[in-house]
Structure formats: structure tokens, C-alpha cells
């Protein structure tokens, strides 16, 4: 299995928290050490957007709309990517995708390995 596998989505009230996980053990060379990994999301009727990325050296980027609320981390030993989401808002509702590529810019153009997504629903 090459596709990353997301888990941890669900329904939560506004202000609540969720933690998404992404198992990346199936990636070629099977090491998240050498990949840029990221979380993207897509809401109905909207384009997919980058949420956060973490590169092989640990450097991170965040979309402005999640700064201060979401945290991306990875556990290289477990080959797992995480997204801790706090202070959730109804506009955070979307399908969240985990992705991995050799370069972070590759993710922005849809390259690399993508999971099937996990639904996050935030009610007001």
C-alpha cells in the first residue's frame, strides 16, 4: 500500500479539538524522513487548500487561517503525521487529506502520494 491513510476525523462543536493522524508506512523508501508531508482540505464547492506542511528537516508552514490554532507534527519512528486542531470553527469543516512528496511544492500541484481523506465537521 502506497497511499497514506488518515484517521481521526469526526464531528465536534465550535471551539473543540480534534487530532488527525496519517500513517505513512507505505511510502516508497518507507521513511517520512525524506518527504515533505502536509495536510490539505477541501470543503464542498471549494478548491482544495493547503493547511500545513512539515518538511524532512522539520520546518513547517501554516495557512494564515489556521495559525495559532493548528499544529503539524510527525513521528519519524512511527512514520506518522499528525495535525492537532484546536479552537475549531464551522468554516474548518472539510475533508482533510494527508499527502507526501519529495518536495513541498510538489504537494501544491497535486503531486506525490495522497490519502483518501477524513471528514471533519464543526457545528456552531
Helical/strand content category: mainly beta
What is the helix/strand order? EEEEEEEEEHEE
| Rg for CA atoms | 13 Å
Helix content: under 10%
Shape summary = globular
| DSSP strand content | over 45%
Point out poorly predicted stretches.
none
Distance between the termini: 37 Å
| Main beta-sheet annotation | 7 strands, mixed
The overall average pLDDT, rounded, is 92
Give the number of helices.
1
Describe the structure.
The chain has 124 residues and is mainly beta. 4% of the residues lie in helices and 46% in strands. The chain is built from one helix and eleven strands. The strands form two sheets. Strands 2, 4, 5, 6, 9, 10 and 11 form a seven-stranded mixed β-sheet that branches. Strand 7 and strand 8 form a beta hairpin.
In brief, what are we looking at here?
4% of the residues lie in helices and 46% in strands.
Descriptors:
124 residues; seven-stranded mixed sheet; four-stranded antiparallel sheet; 1 helix; 11 strands
Q: What is the fold's blueprint, element by element?
A:
Elements (H helix, E strand, L loop, with lengths): L4 E3 L2 E4 L4 E6 L12 E7 L6 E6 L5 E3 L7 E6 L4 E6 L8 E8 L2 H5 L4 E2 L3 E6 L1
Amino acid at each position: 500500500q502506497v497511499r497514506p491513510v488518515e484517521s481521526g476525523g469526526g464531528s465536534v462543536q465550535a471551539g473543540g479539538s480534534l487530532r488527525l493522524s496519517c500513517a505513512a508506512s507505505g511510502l516508497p523508501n518507507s521513511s517520512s524522513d525524506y518527504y515533505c508531508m502536509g495536510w490539505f482540505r477541501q470543503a464542498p464547492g471549494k478548491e482544495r487548500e493547503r493547511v500545513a506542511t512539515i518538511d524532512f528537516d522539520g520546518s513547517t508552514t501554516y495557512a494564515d487561517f489556521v495559525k495559532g490554532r493548528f499544529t503539524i507534527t510527525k513521528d519519524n519512528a512511527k512514520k506518522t503525521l499528525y495535525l492537532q486542531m484546536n479552537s475549531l470553527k464551522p468554516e474548518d469543516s472539510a475533508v482533510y487529506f494527508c499527502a507526501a512528496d519529495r518536495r513541498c511544492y510538489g504537494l501544491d500541484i497535486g503531486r506525490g502520494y495522497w490519502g483518501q481523506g477524513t471528514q471533519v465537521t464543526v457545528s456552531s
